[in-house]
Amino acid sequence: MAVVFYDLCSQSGLKKLDEYLLTRSYITGYQASKDDIIVHAALSKPPPSEYVNVSRWYHHIEALLRISGVSGKGCGVTIEGSAPVAEAVATPPAADSKASAAEDDDDDDDVDLFGEETEEEKKASEERAAAVKASGKKKESGKSSILLDVKPWDDETDMQKLEEAVRSVQMEGLFWGASKLVPVGYGIKKLQIMLTIVDDLVSVDNLIEDQLTVEPVNEHVQSCDIVAFNKI
């Protein structure tokens, strides 16, 4: 039976989707499928961070689409009340454009193009250049996709609470993705979870040492190991 979502561009629609994804990694089934792609395409922009589960799912699907694509068939999904196509920006009348150009010419007459630059102007120019340079570096920041093994203390550890504790770690540049439980032996299971990080903002080593293996998370987590680390 197909899953139905309503008006994903409204707050109520996003709230319903967030509640739906609270206990799910994907829209249908246990792997990414065309159902995820359909819902992903219905969102006109990345969801606000307040919708934690939708945001986690959205960034995970984006990472999959960039890295390996999505091949699962899915069970069917219907989107009703999707976002309307953005209206084209109206082109101003030619007369108005000419009038505006004339006003610009008048303004140019008042500017001394060959005047000597003051100390204040020079300082402001240097500050703008530094800001542009810093902004350019920030945009060039790379991302990495990581698969973690998170191991509990014993077979009595509540794995649902363990996952909740792991996902409770939030910071700028960190996006949690899909997860699953993998049997280890003697009734013990480990959590395998995907995450995407912005390299300049998050160190996976510091994430493990300073967040995932200290209180209160280490009440459930014994250790964490990096299974796969790929640059995006």
UniProtKB/TrEMBL annotation:
An annotated GO cellular component: cytosol
Domain of life where this protein originates: Eukaryota
InterPro entries: eEF-1beta-like_sf (IPR036219), EF1B_bsu/dsu (IPR049720), EF1B_bsu/dsu_GNE (IPR014038), Glutathione-S-Trfase_C_sf (IPR036282), Transl_elong_EF1B/ribsomal_bS6 (IPR014717), Transl_elong_EF1B_B/D_CS (IPR001326)
Keyword hit for Transcription regulation: no
One MF annotation (Gene Ontology) recorded for this entry: guanyl-nucleotide exchange factor activity
Domain Translation elongation factor EF1B beta/delta subunit guanine nucleotide exchange: 143-232
Keywords of this entry: Elongation factor, Protein biosynthesis
Subunit comment: EF-1 is composed of 4 subunits: alpha, beta (1B-alpha=beta'), delta (1B-beta), and gamma (1B-gamma).
Protein name, as recorded: Putative elongation factor 1-delta 1
Upper lineage: Eukaryota, Viridiplantae, Streptophyta, Embryophyta, Tracheophyta
